[in-house]
Amino acid sequence: MRSTRKERRTRRSIKSRLIGWFFMLLLGVVLLGVLMVLPWRWLAPPTSAFMLAEQWQSDRQIDYRWMPLERISPQLAIAVVASEDQKFPHHHGFDLDSIMDALLSERGRIRGASTISQQVAKNLYLWSGRSFLRKGIEAGLTLLIESLWPKRRILEVYLNLAEFAPGIYGAEAASQRLFGKAAGRLTLHESSLLAAVLPNPKRMRVVSPSGYVVGRARDIRQQVRQLGGPGYLGFLP
Fold it and tell me: Which residues pair with 163 in a beta bridge?
């Protein structure tokens, strides 16, 4: 009987230590995530995981020029939201309706349901792919980004990190290279073309666009008008 009680006390002690270690590990992960995410609320990221991967995998020169949101055309901001994440001003990082639609799509195939916040987490910190590990890390980073950054900052970082053509990252580099003008002067038509290629900028082109890109850009302009234009994003300058 004494031996049994001793074994029970030992098991309880081991269980308590394991629970304590688990919570310490969880706290450490959260603190590490905060340290990774919080500085970019105010500082311009010097690069991103996707840019570093491209430099590692190819000899292509990266063109990345940070530009504050107030110097980027509101037409590009609303075109990107209309194209990529129309619920962006209202959700908390995840579009649950789109996720459910993706899970229930035909033949069980999961199509994209990533919000702008999720794409910021992926582009800034992670790698391309569809593994559960990457998705899990992305979800955690998305929660931190939504908790620590205002919506305006999330969109600002997205517009600066998004790839609009091979090796061309951010609104300013794309506008200068593809249209020969500053990002602040982009029209809705030009902005819709930039937004149209975001799903696959390595294959789809803004200059001499395919019929698919032209049609997609036209649909984006229609969506922008239905949303009410840049005023839909009340935080824009």
Answer: 169
